[in-house]
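Lecture notes, part 5. Sequence design as translation. It can be helpful to think of inverse folding as translation between two languages: the language of shapes and the language of residues. The source text, in structure tokens, appears below.
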């Protein structure tokens, strides 16, 4: 293993142990207002839930009983029946000037790990992660997102999905 800033396109295992003093100071300042930040993220998620609750075949983040989800990212998983995998969905949103991120790939699928015995075992165990990963995106959820911007994102997503039914 080697210490690098980035493992080359997830093809090798590497570690990065550095944090600058500036990054640490920002992190500390964020921790001092963590309750406000989480409350704002939860508000944004509540807006998405309200805007998208009527879309059959679209699932948003879960919040199991006894947990408090901080909704760091708002994740949308589209049903396979739409025939719309995450890359195409992201491109369609991008055409509307909406940034999104891909839902995480199962760790056992990335090239740095794919050929290991642990990854082969994980692929057999983690069938759900392999089923949903191709159909998930993370929607815009920045702290400064307005209700109007979120409505535009939601309406755009609904329009894209309606065209795929």
């Amino acid at each position: 293993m080697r210490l690098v800033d980035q493992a080359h396109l997830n093809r090798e295992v590497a570690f990065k142990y550095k944090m600058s003093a500036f990054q640490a100071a920002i992190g500390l300042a964020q921790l001092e207002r963590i309750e406000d930040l989480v409350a704002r993220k939860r508000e944004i998620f509540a807006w998405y839930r309200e805007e998208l609750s009527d879309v059959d075949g679209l699932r948003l983040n879960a919040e199991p009983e006894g947990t408090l989800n901080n909704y760091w990212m708002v994740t949308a998983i589209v049903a396979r029946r739409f025939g719309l995998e995450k890359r195409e969905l992201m491109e369609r949103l991008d055409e509307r000037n909406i940034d999104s991120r891909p839902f995480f790939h199962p760790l056992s699928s990335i090239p740095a790990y794919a050929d290991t015995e642990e990854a082969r075992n994980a692929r057999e165990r983690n069938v759900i992660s392999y089923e949903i990963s191709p159909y998930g995106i993370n929607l815009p959820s920045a702290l400064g997102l307005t209700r109007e911007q979120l409505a535009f994102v939601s309406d755009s997503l609904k329009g894209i999905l309606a065209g795929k039914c």
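The translated text above is only one of many valid answers, since several sequences can fold into similar shapes. DSSP finds six helices and six strands in the chain.
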